[in-house]
Amino acid sequence: MAYPTVSAPYGLKPVNLIGGQVFAGATRLMQIASGYATSIFYGDLVQRVAAGTIEKDTGTTTATPCGVFLGVQFTNGSTGQVQQQQYYPASQAIASGSKIFAVVADDPDTLFQMAVVSGTTTISGVGISAIGNNGTLVQNAGSTTSGNSAVALLDSTAVTATLPIRIIDVVRDTATAADNFPEVIVKINATMHQYNNSTGI
Q1: What are the residue ranges spanned by the domains of the chain?
Q2: For the chain, which has fewer Cβ within 10 Å, the N-terminal or C-terminal residue?
Q3: What confidence tens digit (pLDDT) does each residue in 112-150 have?
Q4: In angstroms, rounded to a whole number, what is the distance separating the alpha carbons of residues 28 and 168?
Q5: What is the pTM of this model?
Q6: For 112, left (φ over 0), alpha (ψ -120 to 50), or beta?
């Protein structure tokens, strides 16, 4: 029996960079439009939009993200206090004249750990032959209690160039069988990352 057990998806969690380089927590502050009506959770993919702000990337087979959301800061419109929290609540009211800033891991070389599902939130797994393949995202709703994403990777992988996630490795510590791995190490597929898109937004 593997330990620890992977019980549910948790989004994309940064672990290091290509080549084994350390992820030192380097992030970029990116603005969210005031009143943006979709919640964004820790571990969700986000993308730049034409207004210069970011929004949650809800794509599954065609996501084109600029990075992964790791938190938010804003001045609360009711209390006037600066808040830093795990997730952005939809349609957040902010103080007049203030802005909402997301914390985003946007380095195209960042590697993330994520869970594999058979559909929605049912944990599944892939074999070692999935390494090097591309994968499809499963867009589950995040938790307003923990603030964490529930985005996952579908267990059916392919060599399709336009799929948004590249599988770099499997997580062996949580294997449930000799060749079944419920967690993988991934990166945003180079051709789908907004920073590598030659045409821009």
Answers
A1: 1-201
A2: N
A3: 999 999 999 999 999 999 999 999 999 999 999 999 999
A4: 24
A5: 0.95
A6: beta
